[in-house]
Structures are given as structure tokens and as C-alpha cells.
Amino acid sequence: MFDRRRFLGASASASGMMLAPWLQNALGAPSPGKPPMRFIFMHKGNGLFPSVLVPPSLSPADADKEQAKDAFSVDLNKHQLPDWMKPIAAHKSNMSILQGLSGKMCQTGHHTWQSSLGVYKANEKLTSIKWATVDFELARMFPSPLSHLELACFPTGGGNARGNINGIETGFSARGPQQPNLAYGSPKIALRELFKVVYNNKSDQVEYNLERKVLEFTAGKQSSLAGNLNGVERTKVANYADSVEEVRARNGRLEKMADVIRKHLPTLDAKYLADDITTVDRQRGHVEILLATLISGMTNVVAFTADELGTPYTGLNRLEKETVNLHDVGHNKGFGDLKADEVRTEVRLQHMSLINTIVTRLKVVPEGDGNMFDNTTLLYFPDNGETHHSSGVEWPFLVFTGRNTKLNIAGRYIRLPKHGKEGHKTLGNLYTTILNAYGNPIPHYGDLDLALEKMKIDQKGPIREFLA
Amino acid sequence: MPEPRPAYLRRVTQTMLQHDIPRPRPSRTSLAMLVLMTSAASTATAADPVKPFSMPKDVATVLSTYCGSCHDENGKGNVSLTQLDKLKINERLDVLNKVHEQTFFKLMPPAKSEQPGPSELAILNKWVLAELRQHNASKFDEKVTTPTGGNFVDHDLLFRGDMKDKPYTPTRRWLVNPQIYHNRVLDVFDLKGKDRATNLSGIVNPFTLPERSGVRDYDVASLDGSHFVAMQANATWVANKIVGSLRIKLGEAPDKVFPNPKDRWYPKSDNGDKKNPVKLLAPFEAILAKKTPPTDEELTAAIQFHFERALHRKAAPSELQNYQSLMRSAIELGGNIEGLRRMLIAVLLESEFVYRVELGAGTPDQFGRKQLSPAEASSAIAYALSDRAPDEPLMQAARDGRLNTKQDYEREVRRLVFSDTLLRGEIDGTLHEIYPSYSKNNISSQPKIHRFFREFFGYPLATRVFKDVERSDGYYQSPGRGTYGTPGQLIREADLFVEHCLTKDKNVFEAILTSNEFYVAPRDNAEAKIAGLNELYDRFKDTNWQIDPKTKTPPKMSDEDLSFIRKRLNYNSDARDLAVAMKHVEHFRKAGLTPHPVWSYPFHIGHLTPHANSYNLAPPTWKYPAQQPFAVDHRKGILTHPAWLIAHSENSATDPVRRGKWIREKLLAGTVPDVPITVDAVIPEDPHKTLRDRLAMATSKQECWKCHQQMNPLGLAFEIYDDFGRYRTMESLEHPSNIVAKAKAKYGADTYKTAPVVASSRLDGTGDLALDGEVKDALELIDRLAKSKRVRQSIIRHAFRYFLGRNEMLSDSQTLIDADNAYVQSGGSFKAVVVSLLTSDSFMFRK
Question: Cα separation of B568 and B580, whole Å?
């Protein structure tokens, strides 16, 4: 079993000195004895309706509140979970079902681009990307060699289709204003690109070495150019040379971690590496990549698009022979012998089994006086709000938090005041809470809801009740 | 006469901005680091050890005389100036920065207190700056080269005419803007004509300009890691396209080379002429087609070919050697194809690919200045006036040695500036990134010149301010997928307004500031379209033109009728379109109006210009003028255009502070300190008060007012417009407790209690005595502004920054005076200003 602290200790003692701070950071360990926090943003296209997240065992009084969407909270351990959550039942005490958040400041509808992670109306126009998405903000707070990883089951249909779902394409996160991130579309490409430091395939090794040559050439040429300059001009070129050097250094750090990475190199069956992989296997393969990069310390933040409305679903349980069109499901079309609601349930069941895999596997990696999940937050949510044609008036979340995380919501079903009521909270409030909790003092993350503004409802800042 | 700035400030500014102290040039991304590095090189070298803290007696006397009574050891605002020696170094530097800021902006001592004389202030500030600089800690130095520090240079000194230093621009690397980067990538593929509209789907532009009113593209930005990530991905995409094109030519299947069906474009490898075939990528093809390693000559040809396209120059011998070496080692690893691919990538990762390099050449003149080389000059002129590399005549002039003298520059600048066709194109492609049909509306004969006014006034930012449709009573559409909504329409009309003024090129500033001749939903051939609709209506009004609501069957039309309809609507119009047109005309005739010619095909009925509400124009009162522009009531120039008003508003309210700050800084060459980080700038809610009153509640305290007095009076004059840009005399007190009637329509507005708008103010300290005094509202204020010499000169200062890519220094004084004179003597020609700036020493010389 891989123990990151033991690895760090071993590395330090082997070299006869304490690890340099940058190396500690690079390996995802900001300070001795204090592992980094990890964040997984797993989102899906629409189809996660608020009504399906309600525990069936609510008392009549709470059920009435639920029906009226009035605020209340109950202990999940005293309640039965909806059937489709069975795969994650073992993690009930780490889980919260969060209802009543809104996201009317986001793009809603069929496709939403970076909206649900950036809390603004993003669309296909680059200028609609206003700032870095919340996952990137967190990645900056918890640096790692890869900094951030995005995996996606890309859409091939609808208004947001990618041409090559097996390649590296524009993702759903943003590095900064007008800077969409790139995501890995298949386990195969992710494996090849992320683990090429330790990969044995000859052509991939050649490719890696060729890239190294260009980086070395560019860094050397720009450093040499900077050396002949003075003052600001020197700084301008040196800055660039340093950036290239930083990429080389990052590769170097990954190379130094080769043993660790090799140890956690996902061993994927051939079916996960095929070009005609089913959607379900693509998701499972991505989860293996996600786990390997987190556990090995290559990254601390992963954004994972489990599906988007335009993602064709293949391989679903009870629908193995069907290619499910989620848009049609959104318009209540059934597939195979299943009605639309039953298809949605199968999709969610699949997602819950993925989450179970992630949480269970992290729980068995020792870290500190506990395990890696202690320092992990996983958020599962739709990218577009409450229904197929949503307006963002609700935005349900499942949140899984480990023991050392700073959100005090585990084990609860929480319904917040509904949109328009005093005390109502938005996606922006949730992300502000998370950012504030870990030291980013931003007063409010995300755009504001103009309807709430008109009602003079305070919508800025963290949800103080959630802070541990 | 404006009050002269104290002598100490003149000296401080003059000293700081002269060439004897190199300017700190912070990066857009790592400003603090660059400042530190630059300052370290300039002011505190290793040979210049930091001196222990001590305060000269004369400084101590000034502080104790004018500041000590408040800022003693228990000082106000936790600022003690009498015991600076007891503070930790960081605390002391923080206090000294505050002292400098307060005295520079004339915020301290308070107006009612005894004021130090100019010589005393000079003593104090000279010492303060020296202290800060020896620790590289001057916040003032940090800002002075950035857009926010442009006005730090004394305005009167700049235009007084007694500055004798020769103008120059420091040698520099100026990071390309997004449009130039895009064009440089197109150049790599050697795309011409319509092919330049090719969608390069794999390119993510690494560069963005800050979204703000005012000049956006400064030479202070530096390449960094985030740029590199995008540049590396782009370079790989470009190289794969070139290599892929040749692989296809050499026999591989296109879908194997480019498996992504959405990204199958690739550059042509030959000219497609079977009779006279020309290989367009010949040097690359020679390497790829070869089974054995290429010769040195073949490598050289490929490298030079790529250098010419990407960097517009030949590789130097040492570069050739390096690139050959790279190619050889890559070929060893991956064959000829990889040797070529890696070279293609590496050239595109040269910093030179994304910097505009302006170093000057030749022997320095007696003032230590070098003139731009002819090649640099051709690029500098081209990029000042467009986003493209120099055109052929400009390059030829450089090659022929005809780009050396001021007259040479003037010849080329005039050729480009006074042409209506050479540079015609989109004003700002980045605003219209994916909707080319829409963007075609925002065209100018001089896009780069036009863009100055766009950036200066900042009205395109209207698309960034989201509005609630219901508050607008249903007419306002915020930008979203596939549309720029109402602000997109308004920006287009503001563009037309500016273009109209620029095309006339007479008293341009005055016209842009005061003309009430606006465009509202203009259409080509409007008169003919209106006539056509009327003819349709008159011909069919007594016939059975309506569609049966039950059967939804349109009436049958004769060929003659169809022909009549199609001549007036669209080439394939039918009875259904006729029905729409008839209802459209009927809608307007009922209101006693001629039908609007405004539709897209197929069109909707009736109220087709909802955005006109922002001009207080809407049926049934709006009589559409076929001739545009036309006079619009209650408007006077761009500052009363809804696009500007929305761009400088909040989501749900006006923004007098931002509007006032804009005028203070952009038109009056004034300075306003940053909001202190301790201030939570929030206007309090009070359902019974207007915004003006609530703003007063937040800003009337003395410590707030000392800054806000420079903004609020100017901005409040614009309270005669609401945040949608509509003229008003009453303000809706939009608070849930003030609703007097709920909306009836789906997206209708609730009706609130109202209060009269008060837009009058008193202006003081504008720097132009003719501007100071009582002002009734924005319309009166604008009249005064348009007559002000200071306003004219302030616009010219910003034009200097736009075309030179930097803030003006005192040594640029003659350049600015010449540009100002050019404007006045030409009867207000902005093109004359541009010619003057681009033939100035500031533009031509580097040091």
C-alpha cells in the first residue's frame, strides 16, 4: 500500500536532507504532517432532478417542508436513502444531500459550458469565460505537479459537440478569463499523456523525448537571449524562458516521482483502451486515471465530466444494446424496455458506483493518522440545474467530505430556503464557502443573480453554517 | 486659470519620468516581481547599500508642523508620523507610501488645516520617495507605467512647451494583442484573401486584453507560463496541419491523418493549377518525401521558409546552426517527419513570434537615440494602423531604403490612413468571435483608429453588464448564446455614430461629445423597403390575405401576385410572408405610423426594434426616420448614448461614481486614488431614498468625500438617464416595499413609487476654470466639456497611449503639442492627429 507521507519521509531521508519546500509543494504536501486537500468535481448533464434526491423516510412534517421547498435539515443516518444511492450507502456518514441552491446567474438549458464551475453565463464564445473556474482556484491553493486534471466523456451531439471524443479537447473548466481548459476524452489518451514518464510503449517514449528536445531547445534559446538583454527587456524574455523551464522542471519532478507513479500506473484492461469504448467503460477508465493521479500525488484537483447532454450513452445496465440519447430522455423518451425515468435512474446508479469506487479506494490509502479520503471533498452535481429545460432555480448537489475537510455538512440532508426567500443561497455561496474555508478570502465567487438583487436579498459571501 | 501644480510635484514627476531613472515596466501578470527586478537594477544596486533609517531635520520639521497634531504617537487612522524610526521596516514603508499618495493626490493635510508651501512639500516628498526607492517599495513607481498611472504626469507641464528633452520610446518588446496573434498564425499558413477567414479550430488565443474603459494594449505585458501552455498547444496544431497536408499529398488518407471530423482543414500543398503547378510547401515537402536524412541545404531551405512566414525575416547563421542541430537530433529519434515537425513547433515558440520587437538600429544620435530600422518601422506603422503585418508597399519601402525620414513615414502613414479601402474591416474581431454574419455590421474603413474610440469610451463593455429583463419591462435582452442581445444592437449603433464622426473628420472630438444625431435600427435602402411594404398593403388590404386560423391554409396567389410580393419582400416569399407583412403594416398604421423597415427574414410582427426603448423610442410614438443618423431628443454625444450609459452602470442601477471617475480621468486628465482596501464600497439600501441620496449617505464623510468630490458631481449629472440608458425625470425607487402595481405582462416591470431626479451639481478643481461651477445636468456638462482645451488635450494624451502603447513621459511633450496643434490647425481632424503621432520622434526613435 502506498503511503504518501512515508514516501515523502523516505525520499527525504534517502537524500539525507529535508525536502525543499518547492518539492514538498510539487508532491502535494504543503507542510510536514499536513497533507493537501483534494477536490473532485464530478458533474453530469441534466437529469439529476431535486425530487429524486429526497430520502423516502422523511416525516410527514418534513415531507411537507420538502414539498413546499421550505428550509430544513435532517440526519441522514436516521433516514433511508433513495434506492439509486445504494452503491454509496456505506459512505452515508461522509455524505450530504444539498438541496435548494440556485444558479440563475449561470447559463442553463441543454448545454452550459463552464457555467456550473465558474458561476457565470458561459457559452461557446470565449469571451463568455469571465474567470478561472472554482476547481482551478482550488488547484492554485493546493499546487501539484500537474496542477489540475480534467477528464471528460465528451458530447458528440447537440450544440456543444466535440469532434474527437477520444482526444484532448476543450473541457468544462477554465484556467482564467477566456482560457478554456483542455480535457482528456478517453482513458487511453489520458494514460498515454499523463503517464508517459513511466510508459513503456516505444513510440510514446520517442514522442516524449522529442517534446523534451523542443522544450530544452526553447528554454536554452530564450535563456540565452535573455542573457544578452538588460533591464525590463531581459525580464520579459527571462520570464518566458523561466516558464518553459518550469514545464521542464515539472516534467523533471514527474520523472523523479517515476517510481511512485509507476506503482500507481493504472492497469487497465484492453477494453478500457479501445477506441470504441462504451460510455460506461470510459467512465470507469477515467475513474482509474483519477485515482492514480490523486493517490500518486500528481494532482490534487480533478474535474470529471461524467456525461453531458450530448454524450451518447452506451453500455448502461439493462440497456447494453442501446445507444441512449440523453436529450431524448430529457423529453421523456424511453429506451429499450425502460421508461425515461428508469433510464435516468440507471445513469445515476452508474455514477454512484463510480463514486463508491473513488471514495472506497481513497479510504484505503493511509495518510497521516487516517486515510486519503479524510482530506478529500467530492462534489457531484448537474451542469444545468433542476430539470431538462432548467432556469437554474435549483441546483442539487451530493457532497462527500472526509474527516479533515472544512465543510461541516457531512451526514445531513439539507434543504436551504428556496429561491426568493430570505436566506436563500446560490452556487456562488457554496463555492465561496469552500474557497474561504481553505484560505482564499474572496468576498464572493461568481456572478450575482439579478432576480435576487431586485428582491434585495443578500446573496454574497460564504454559507457560514457550513463552515466547520 | 487652473491652479499650477506645486513645484515639488513637477520636479518629482519630471525626475521620475525622465530617462535618468529607468522606468519600472511591470508585467501584466507578475507586476510586483518585475517592478522589483527593474527597480533593483535601477535604484538599489549591490553597490548601493541600503542606508539605515534617519530623518533629516527639515523633513522632520515639515512633518511635525503640518501633520504632527493629528498623526502623533496616537495618530489618527493608526498613522503615526512622529515615531517612524520605531516602526518595523514594512510598516514604515507602508506609512511612507501613504504619505506620498496623500500629498500627491492633495488629500492631506485636510483642506481646513494649514497647508505646507511648495518648497516644504518638495523637501518631504523628495525624502519619502528616496526612502521608498532604496527599498524598491514605491507604490507610485509601480503604477506610473501602467494604465492607471497615465495621468500622473503633470498635464500643464506636458503642454506648456518649455520641455527641451528629445522624445523617444524606450527599446522594447511589445506583446502582440489577440488580433495580431491570430493574423500571425494565418501568416504561418500563408493564407490570403477569403482564406484568411478560415476557422482555425485548434487555436486558442493565448492573449487577452483587460476589459476596461480606456487604452487596453500596453507594452508592459510579459510572456508567462499560461501563455506558453496555449502557445505550445497551438504550435503543435499548426505543425500537425502542415505535416498532415504533406502526408495527404504523399498518399495517406485524409481521415487517417486527421481523424477528428470536426477538424479536417489543412493548408494547401500546391496551387491546384494542373497546367502550372506550384508546390506551396516545397522546402517541407522535399524533407518529408525523402527516405534518407535531408542535406544541410534542404534543412536550411525549410528553416528559412518557415522563418520568413512566421517571423518575417531570415534566420541568422547561428540560428540556422541551432535549428539544423535540433532537426538532426529529432530526425535521429523519429525520422524526417519529426525533424520537420519539431522545427515547425520550435520556431512558433520563439518569443519573437509574439513580441513586437523595437530596438532601433544604426548609430545613436547626439541624444543617444536610435531610429527604428526600416523593417521595424514598417511593422510599427502597420501594427499602429492595423492588426496585420506590413503590406507589400510598406515592405518594399523598407527594402528600398525609403523608410528612413519623417517624410518617408508620413508618406506611408498617409497612404494607409487616408484610404477608405486598404484597411477596411471589422473593428474588433474579438467581440464577434463566432458570429461572422453579425460582425459584418461592425465594419470601419479604419478599424484600428475606430478601435481607439471604442476602447477610450469603453462602450463595448455594455455586453458585460447583465440586466434583468423584467426591470426593463420586457424589452431588454441580455447577451447569451447566439446573440449579443440589446447591448449588441446598441454597440453597433454607437459604432455607426463614431464612424460617422470619423468619416467626416471635422471637429471629431466635439462631434463625438455633442452630436445628437444617432442611428437607431438603421437599415440599408430603408425608404425602398418602407415603400414596398406600403405598396403590398395597399394592393392586398381589401383581399383575402389572412391565413385561416382553423385550417392554417394560406390563400392561393396568382403568379402575378407572387411576383409582386417577391419584388418587395424576399425572392422566395409566399402568401404566408405576405400575411406577416400585412399584419406588420397594420400594426403601425393603427398607430398612425409608416411601417418600420426593420426585419430579418423571416420576420416577426410589429414591435421589431425593442432596443430602441433605450433611446426612449418605441411605437406608437416613434416615427421611423428612413434617413439616418437623425436627431434624438435628450441626447448629446456618446456619453448619452445608451451603450456608454449601460457600459458604465451596475446590473440594477446607475453608477455615478464610475461615470464620474471616467470623466475625471479620461476627459480631464485627472487622477483619483484607488479605493482603500479597508473600504467596503457599498451604497446602503433605503427604500425611501434615491440613489443620489443613498450615495451621499455612503460618501459624505470627510475621509470619503475628499476622493468622491472628484467623481460624484460629474457622475450625478448623468442621473437623468436610468441604467438602461433611458432619459428620465423621475427615479423609480426599486424596492419590494415600494411596489404600487405588480407587472401584468409575463416579463413586465412592477411599478414603484418614484422621486424626482436631481442631476445638478457643483464642479470644482477640474483643472479648467471654465468647467468649474454649477452644472444643471449631463447635457450642460457635456457642452462645457466639449469646449475645453484640457478635454481635447486629454483625449490626445490617450490617443498617444493607444498608438505608442505606453504612458507619455515629460520628454514626449513636443509630440503631444504637435499632435494637439495638428488637430486644431486641421479643423479637428483625428487623422491629422494620427499622422502627427506616427511621424513623431516618440514613434520613430528608441533609446
Answer: 13
